[in-house]
Amino acid sequence: MRRVLITVSRSWSDWERMRGALREVWSPDTVLVHGAAPRGDMDAERIWVSWGGPVERWPADWSRGRSAGFARNAEMVASGPDMCLAFIRDGSAGATHTANLATKAGIRTRTFFDPESVPAHRCGNCGTPSLSPECSPGCTRDPWGSA
Length: 147
What we know:
The chain is α/β, with parallel strands linked by helices. The protein has helices spanning 15-25, 41-50, 68-78, 93-104; strands at residues 2-8, 30-34, 55-57, 83-88, 108-113. It has a domain at 1-28 and 80-147.
């Protein structure tokens, strides 16, 4: 089974854009992996499950303190998902952290920004907004990089 990690800013509000991105990678045998945050992650899960897709939740263990979310993000990335979809608005620390970890781990990462909070950098490969001036590995229009 393929596994798609999703990370979503709490303030994300472009649900149609998210729905379109999820639709591109959805298949009945693809698992949606997320951090179980009530706003964002669970919204994505509702979309995914409505299509009949399986999910894998990684809730943070907040008894570990304020860094629990970052620890959970690292654990999700270390679990080896095939792809990461990041929906970032207002410079979200958690979603940005997860996207950066996934990119550094060599996981194909597609980042979507709220049009009103687009960062200054653009991908050198395709021109889309980017978290850094460097192009993410395998940046293409094909979400699985097979073309």
